[in-house]
Design goal:
Number of helices: 17
Radius of gyration: 26 Å
Strand order of the largest sheet: 1-2-3
Structural class: mainly alpha
Strand content: under 5%
CATH class of the largest domain: Mainly Alpha
Helix content: 40-55%
Distance between the termini: 38 Å
Order of helices and strands: HHHHHHHHHHHEEEHHHHHH
């Protein structure tokens, strides 16, 4: 970047440090240049307003982005300043980000309920968010309306009935479970006058006992053949999908897999599952080899993250559950494999591999780490003739 003209303004002296951080995070020279141009534009704008870096609050940054959207076609979204503001805040050059403080009764109760679900019930972050989303309409009506202290069973029942109109049984069941948990918690906390959970009723929802949609041997081969030809992307995605197919991992478990959870000497891996559960599993040789190859040749280096799988693009953050699912879904689409639930189909295939190899439901439950035999019972209906189509044994179609 030497030789480039620097723009006047209060951020001019901070450019070199910003570029150093971008480089350390893995940003390409071209992307770093665009980020630097954004910084210079902001610096010039602050100068014309007679402001310093210390005046760069969230409101001022929002005003700047309004101006930028009128002048530029790139880096004009609300997230464009994320990298720059993060750098400046870490250096103490600009005010810290404003923390949204719940203002309404509903928001405060939602926050407390979410903390209870995570700490006391041990629910995963995604499940907590789902619960909070389901109970939000109820809290908006009765909490912000100041009606919780005199809430009755009739009101709860009427709310559930009104919400059920047009909903599918499965969606309604999820909403009722969340509301029932909220009502129990509010009773324990003394927020409502009585235990009203029974007033939510129940709904008969499909139990999902149909035959798992396992992939055939040909589909497994096509799946790996359809992975990206890019070296780093293929190394990562091949290791991820093989982990799901061989260990029966959920997408969230793949995303949460950490470097510290793999015992290479003992050939073991610790899986962090639902409800803060931790299970120790044998690490198959083929999975281990793919992980080693990815960690050695494909994973970005020099980063503090302890998660195994990282994003391909800078700043190379750890993947989330949705990103893992997206990788599986895109691979299946490119392979011409139709149907929904890409990540779960890989998990189903792992289970059906056990059945095809002569294992029973106990072994399936152990592989999938089910909390109860009833969760494994759906595989009792698997058609063993169909299972014969599965690869036994199978390879990823591209050993490394």
């Amino acid at each position: 970047m030497q030789g480039q003209p620097t723009a006047p303004g209060p951020l001019q002296e901070l450019e070199e440090g910003f570029l150093d951080e971008l480089s350390a995070l893995g940003y390409s020279p071209r992307t770093s240049e665009t980020q630097l141009n954004l910084m210079r534009h902001l610096s010039r704008w602050l100068l014309t307003r007679g402001m310093t870096a210390g005046d760069l609050t969230d409101e001022v940054a929002a005003e700047f982005m309004i101006v930028r959207r009128e002048l530029y076609s790139s880096l004009r979204s609300d997230r464009a300043l994320t990298a720059l503001l993060g750098h400046l805040r870490r250096r103490g050059q600009v005010p810290p980000a404003q923390v949204a403080v719940p203002m309404t009764t509903a928001e405060m109760l939602s926050k407390r309920f979410g903390e209870y679900l995570a700490a006391e019930r041990g629910l995963a972050p995604a499940t907590v968010l789902s619960y909070l989303s389901q109970v939000k309409p109820f809290l908006a009506v009765y909490a912000d309306g100041g009606r919780l202290a005199c809430l009755t069973e009739r009101q709860v029942s009427a709310f559930v009935t009104a919400r059920s109109i047009g909903q599918r049984p499965r969606s309604l069941s999820v909403g009722i479970n969340a509301l029932r948990a909220l009502l129990r918690w509010m009773w324990w906390e003394g927020i409502v006058p009585a235990s009203l959970a029974i007033a939510t009723g129940s709904v008969a929802a499909p139990t999902g006992t149909s035959l798992p949609k396992a992939l055939s041997a040909g589909q497994v081969k096509d799946l790996f053949a359809a992975l990206s030809v890019d070296g780093n992307a293929r190394l990562r995605d091949e290791a991820m999908l093989t982990s799901m197919l061989r260990l029966g991992l959920r997408s969230g478990e793949v995303a949460g897999l950490g470097l510290d959870e793999i015992d290479w000497r003992q050939g073991l891996v610790v899986i962090k599952g639902k409800g803060s559960r931790r299970d120790e599993l044998p690490l198959p040789v083929d999975v281990g080899k793919l992980l080693v190859t990815y960690l050695r040749d494909g994973r970005p280096t020099g980063l503090p993250h302890r998660q195994v799988f990282l994003a391909l693009d800078a700043p190379h953050r750890p993947l989330g559950s949705a990103a893992v699912t997206s990788v599986a879904a895109r691979a299946m689409a490119r392979a011409g494999i139709s149907g929904s639930g890409a990540a779960h189909r890989l998990r189903h295939t792992a289970a059906c591999q056990v059945l095809a190899g002569g294992g029973g439901l106990v072994e399936v439950g152990q592989l999938l780490r089910h909390s109860s035999p009833s969760a494994t019972a759906r595989y009792a209906k698997s058609d063993m003739a169909a299972m014969a189509l599965l690869a036994r044994p199978w390879t990823t179609g591209g050993s490394r």
